[in-house]
DNA-binding LacI/PurR family transcriptional regulator (Saccharothrix carnea), 702 residues
Amino acid sequence: MDRPRKPTLDTVAGAVGVSRATVSNAYNRPDQLSAALRERILETAASLGYAGPDPVARSLATRHSAAVGFMLGQGLSASFADAALSIVLDGLASTVDGHDHCLVLMPGKDKGGPRPETVARAQADVVVAYSLPDDAPALTAARTRGLPMVVIDQPVLPDTARVEVDDFGGARLAASSLWASGHRRFGVVTFALHPDGHNGPVTTARLASTSFRVTRDRLHGYLDVTGTDTPVWECARSSRELGRAGARALLSASPRPTALLCASDELAFGALQAVRDLGLRVPTDVSVIGFDDVPAAEHADPPLTTVRQPLAEKGRHAGELALRLLDGGRPGEPTRLPVSLVSRDSTAPPK
Amino acid sequence: MDRPRKPTLDTVAGAVGVSRATVSNAYNRPDQLSAALRERILETAASLGYAGPDPVARSLATRHSAAVGFMLGQGLSASFADAALSIVLDGLASTVDGHDHCLVLMPGKDKGGPRPETVARAQADVVVAYSLPDDAPALTAARTRGLPMVVIDQPVLPDTARVEVDDFGGARLAASSLWASGHRRFGVVTFALHPDGHNGPVTTARLASTSFRVTRDRLHGYLDVTGTDTPVWECARSSRELGRAGARALLSASPRPTALLCASDELAFGALQAVRDLGLRVPTDVSVIGFDDVPAAEHADPPLTTVRQPLAEKGRHAGELALRLLDGGRPGEPTRLPVSLVSRDSTAPPK
DNA sequence: AGTGTGAACTAGAGCGCTTCAGAACGTCCA
DNA sequence: TGGACGTTCTGAAGCGCTCTAGTTCACACT
């Protein structure tokens, strides 16, 4: 079972009869040696089964690992049940991969965000944080490691790059359009205010201490228009099923709301279903509005009125910021991406 | 701008007045030094802003990186549009994270799987491959690096751990139940046979050279029952929208199929929609059957008959295999997880 | 006093690579 | 003919850590 030791740079150098530095150059600086020699080295390497410089050793020597970490607020399946997150992540991944960087995923555990130990051991030299609670331990862990960081949709941290959208403004926009068309009785279906898995109506106290920036802003945007006494139903995750249950609960009040404001499209899809469940019609009986404008919004039944934010762009931009930080760039001003209201067929004036 | 150099083990050792080895032990082998000294070291470390041993250097010294790579056949958003994949990935991630390992994601590019360069540079010491074409370059790259590998739903490779489900048997099961209940005119909606983005009817030649094992097996399972002249529509990805379009195309044939066999639930959801689009009813006019049994299948309208495979289990098991390989374990026999037919309301005998 | 023992700590050799300051050897032009 | 210059290749010093094989020391036992 004495499997042969894996070949190293030295092995190859010895075999070809050149110095280790030259072999290294063959891989990293082709201009530093003659094409012929390089060819010879690469051939010998291949015949020895040498797959190129060891990434870890290289990282140690160069002091960067060509990897960006991604810290997530939730588990993977929960995260990706939400198309919006997938799209952002995809934008990030392709940007980063295009520059030969890997993506190190740190999914959230129970209490909002990855465990600090995970963060401490991750081989990444920049991290991107998304949908973490404002006080996530992972954030602290990344800081004490001195990792450059870019946050998406999160509160500013000193020395941190940031990309965000105007969640408050977007939500306000949506609510205003409904208000302007005559709606006066609203219900709000939101995703988590706190990372504790709560499902149900939201109390004022809970609202006041909201630990997710995005939730807070969207909620405040809605309530700013509809009034703070608007009933709010919290779902632990942004999922169709939970949205359906929440909407059903809100719609069973009397007088029944004439419009449902949802914190995400995913929740709105559930709301659409809930309206049908109760034998009512969208938008005749109830208007439903979403947030994100994921691709499915356009094909929903009926097509969903929603607040569009440039999701892929958000991921791509975060990726670029990360790469820039990696290059020693300064964080710079936060980038604010535009939102807009996309009117489709799930909203109409009340009867 | 001369930011102070980051503290290292040596810095801390110097400050406390002990050897580097002792500081290392303070972190990795608390039993090797007195509790008091350990405490003192940790305190000093904290006050110096030392966040613990550098992961890269540690990996070099220990020769393992505490990370498992995950090679994917497609881009992230495409992947996660498919709930099945998310669930598998989530199972994998939690297993792996529970053992203090990171997940390095290598999403696929255009031509089936991550780029070989990406794989060559990934800091992982075991990789899991999922839904790659059988001949993906990433597979070769991982091999030449000598990385232990576990493949999910892919053909056996020498010296590779493997978890799989009986796709052929599952598909056969589904088709047989329909056949037994009297159906004779079928249509099949499948996801990609080749990583070339093709959408449309499938030719015999294309079918014969299918490069994804899963596709091949499910297809063959269906066609084994329904006959090889059954029309098959290929969708480039497993998405609701593409499934809808494909189903619509198949249903416009005359005579119209009385049953649609879909390679995934996601495609089946699209098919459900397509039937409605045409003013027909499920299952009265058309039966629809899926594959995977994702959570949404139960809540579809109507609830979807489908082939269940233990998705989370699959991911978890792959994770465990990966961890075992990391520990120097042998690949062992492939694990075959069970499939079963879950009958719900989307299937019925033909009129 | 001599010996054995275990606990607490250290020295130093790597891990596999990059990189910088040269060395060696032309070539070219004055 | 000689020196300035370019190209090609080398030597050796790290990168920050782990780990084996010690050394030291206090204490107990005879």
